[in-house]
Amino acid sequence: MKRLVAGVFVLVLSLAGRAGVSPTFIDITPPREIYNPGVLTVAIHPLDGRRLIVTTSNQVRVTLDGGATWRTTAALPGFPERLFAHRGRPGVVFLQGATSEVLIGAQRHRGYTLVSGDFGETWSVIADGRRGDTELAMAPFASVPSQPERLFATQRRTNFTISTSLALPLSPEMSVVESRDGGASWSATATFPSIARGGIRSFEGPTPATPERIFVTTEDDGSYISINGGQAWSQFPERHMGRFFWFRQDPANASVIYASAELAGGSGRAIVRSMDSGESWQAIYPIEYEAAISLFNPGYGELAIDPVRPSRLWLSSVKAGVVLSEDRGASWQPAAFVPETPQCGAVPCVTPIWWNRIVERVLVSPANDSQAYFIRNGSLYRAVLPPRNRVAVEYQYGDRFWITGDSAEALSQDYRANEAVRTGRPFGFWSAADAPTGAKAVCRFQGNPARGQTSRFLTLQGSECDTLRQDPGWVLEGEDESFAVPAGPGGECAPEHIAVTRFVNGLRNANHRYVADSGVAAQMRGRGWIEEGVAFCARPLEFAE
């Protein structure tokens, strides 16, 4: 039975310990045009946290430098509503919106869906309600990590509004559909329940930790869950809770779920957290309800989980602006946009309609430079935090191994697990900013298939790196990205560092494995891999990594 851990809210706004990071906020809004409401949606490139797409009311704009400069790449057929950047297929982006036509005494809203394969430079049409062949439009929102070509979306049909004064399309999504071919064709997911009136409120797709679990909440009929990738659905119980408005899944821990919910007995609304896959819930942040704003902020708070460090949460609250937690919501600190109380003459407004204090969207970059983006009152802001610690994450495909020290590349790989999966054997690198004295940069090579080499190879700057630069069998892909300490003459490392041993499979198409665990090293010797000695000395991992 699901239960709420009741009691008085203990809301800690603390700057102590790991919560002491103070983000810097920079306004990076593209230049506004006449009658332009500003930025409406934003998407981050899965491999590059400074490469963004935004939409305005009628344009698509892109930046390659974190908002320092912008280019317009497309004009839109109608009002944009969602962007979805496919993490497992970097560069693939879906854009969904709607058009409006004024008829006699009413408006007709028709949806459209566009797709880009080059992160917003060019677009093609998937569905266009203005055409005679379809009235449908898909809003993709998730992919299946183990099957990157399998996508989920909501679907809408033509909708009429009995008013010509409403400028925004209001067509509700009434069903969930899926694609098995990367978005080329779509069909209904099995047994998804019929939605009565108001349509779908929110959806939360699969994550690497839960590659088959999906949550959907509706305006009228409660919440639904699928644990088998949409093949079967059941109503998510709300016992000892009021209704749920949205769910968020921890990408690395299947047991951790967050939600925005009404508390039982009408005692308010809160952000709640479950540490046991939804069996019990604990309130971690109260949400103050304002009827005048709820229509435009129906989820009562927008939560974004850092995909690389899931203990870090960003929460936008109508009353408190944006708050930040470094411990999964156990404590919070103010981050930005704390609003002043609006005045109606000499006294505070009782029911203020103060739209510009709502942070509508929070999006976190997975890149090592650790940034987040916020849309507020049509403006786009970038929050800059201290860079992430470099972690070497190992992947395995068949009997071959490779590692990456790029957190964005690692997360993208987690969303194409059909190619390679994590082994759970990470170790630490340093960055140029925090590398100890004597550390050297890592040279990263990719094998040239035309010369019979297909693996990634790492070595420190020096004679081996210089030799491979001249070898046509290997292509230098990067250097000065990560740093490690060379081993001593006898292969020794300082006590505060971790020795990383290099093994090679002994084949012409060479594959190397970098091992920081003595048990794994023994396994590799038993499998006949050749031990080449200590390749370098690595940074020990911290608890939160």
Descriptive labels:
545 residues; 5-stranded antiparallel β-sheet; 43% strand; 43 strands; 4 helices; 5-stranded mixed β-sheet; mainly beta
Structure in words:
The chain is built from four helices and 43 strands. The chain is mostly beta strands and 545 residues long. The chain has a domain of 148 residues. Strand 28 and strand 29 form a beta hairpin. It is globular and about 80 Å long. The two termini are 33 Å apart.
Strand fraction equals 35-45%
DSSP helical segment count: 4
Strand count: 43
Amino-to-carboxy terminus distance:
33 Å
Q: Mean pLDDT, as a whole number?
A: 84
- How would you classify the quaternary structure? single chain
Poorly predicted runs are: 1-19, 162-170, 290-299
Rg is 25 Å
Q: Could you estimate the helical fraction of the residues in percent?
A: under 10%
Strand order within the widest sheet? 1-23-22-21-20
Q: Which sheet architecture does the biggest sheet show?
A: 5 strands, mixed
Structural shape: globular
Q: How would you concisely characterize the structure shown here?
A:
The protein is mainly β. The model is unreliable at 1-19, 162-170 and 290-299 (pLDDT under 50).
Topology of this protein?
Blueprint: E1 3-5, E2 24-27, E3 41-45, E4 48-55, E5 59-63, E6 71-75, E7 79-85, E8 93-103, E9 106-116, E10 124-128, E11 137-144, E12 147-156, E13 159-161, E14 175-179, E15 187-188, E16 200-204, E17 214-218, E18 223-226, E19 234-235, E20 241-249, E21 257-263, E22 269-274, E23 280-287, H1 291-294, E24 302-305, E25 313-317, E26 321-325, E27 333-336, E28 343-344, E29 347-348, E30 359-364, E31 371-376, E32 379-384, E33 391-397, E34 400-404, H2 407-414, E35 421-422, E36 427-428, E37 440-447, E38 456-460, H3 463-469, E39 474-478, E40 483-484, E41 498-504, E42 512-515, H4 518-526, E43 530-538
Parallel strand pairs: 1-23
Antiparallel strand pairs: 2-32, 3-4, 4-5, 5-6, 7-8, 8-9, 9-10, 9-13, 11-12, 12-14, 14-15, 16-17, 17-18, 18-19, 20-21, 21-22, 22-23, 24-25, 25-26, 26-27, 28-29, 30-31, 31-32, 33-34, 33-35, 33-36, 37-38, 37-39, 37-40, 41-42, 41-43
